[in-house]
Amino acid sequence: MTQTPLGSKNRARPETRAKSTGDGSISPVMALISGFCVVVLVIVLAVASTSDRVSKPQNINGDALGPDPWEATEQYVERADESLENMKKEDYQLKNGQPVVEDPKFWAMVTFDRLLDAQEAAQVYEKEPSLRVSTAIIGGVSTRYLPQPSKTASEEKLLQDQLELAAAYADVAIDDERLGFNGLLVYGDAEALMNVKKLPAVKAVEALPSDAARGRFGIRPVLSSGFTDKDPLFAPGLSQN
């Protein structure tokens, strides 16, 4: 048998097994690292489960339009007026800040002092055509996005279509006394919103900060007993909130 010289380059090299011991089990070092990773993962999941970002739908800055559950209507009107004052201040700061925002706009909820029919509610469009009317509020229902008026679909027709749709979803007659507009969700500049507040049929206008994004804030319609003696109209299949 030929022996390999002691200094030969072909000398057999011993195998190294850093990840396991001789009997095939995990080494103590690797077991310690694995255990540490598991502990970290458990902590991360526990913290994440308590975060509002994953435990419930998130609104920008907690934004919501409408009265709090415990808030009386008149208290809400006062708070809505305060939001308009804050809007005017922000509007001034944006137009005179660095960088300048030429035409800042705000989301706002217009609440009427009584239930209006389609013709009456359409006056908001007519008085302030620059406003974008996004959503109709019918009783406890905030409808899906409203299209823009056109030559074939006037403001009044668009709103009347929403009443008929709400009646169908709520399974009530079109002449049901609860079937009317108690508000609109609109988007426009500060001047237009202040002008809407002056309309005779408008009870309140509540504005959000200019950085609020559509679809990321809640809507709580005003369900005042002044609208109707009956329970407010609800149509869960139609409402977007």
Report on the structure:
Keywords: Membrane, Transmembrane, Transmembrane helix. This is Secreted protein. The chain crosses the membrane at residues 29-48. It comes from Corynebacterium amycolatum. Residues 1-24 are annotated as: Disordered. The chain is an alpha+beta fold. It has two domains: 17-56, no CATH class; 60-219, no CATH class. Helix content is 34%, strand content 16%. The protein is built from seven helices and seven strands, in the order ααβαβααββαβαββ. The protein has helices at 28-49, 52-55, 73-95, 118-121, 123-127, 155-170, 190-197; strands at 64-65, 106-116, 132-138, 141-142, 181-188, 202-207, 218-219. The strands form two sheets. Strands 4-3-5-2-6 form a five-stranded antiparallel sheet. It has a two-stranded parallel sheet with strand order 1-7. The longest helix has 23 residues, at 73-95. The protein is extended and about 80 Å long. It starts with 27 loop residues before the first helix and ends in a 22-residue tail after the last strand. Mean pLDDT is 79; it is low at 51-61.
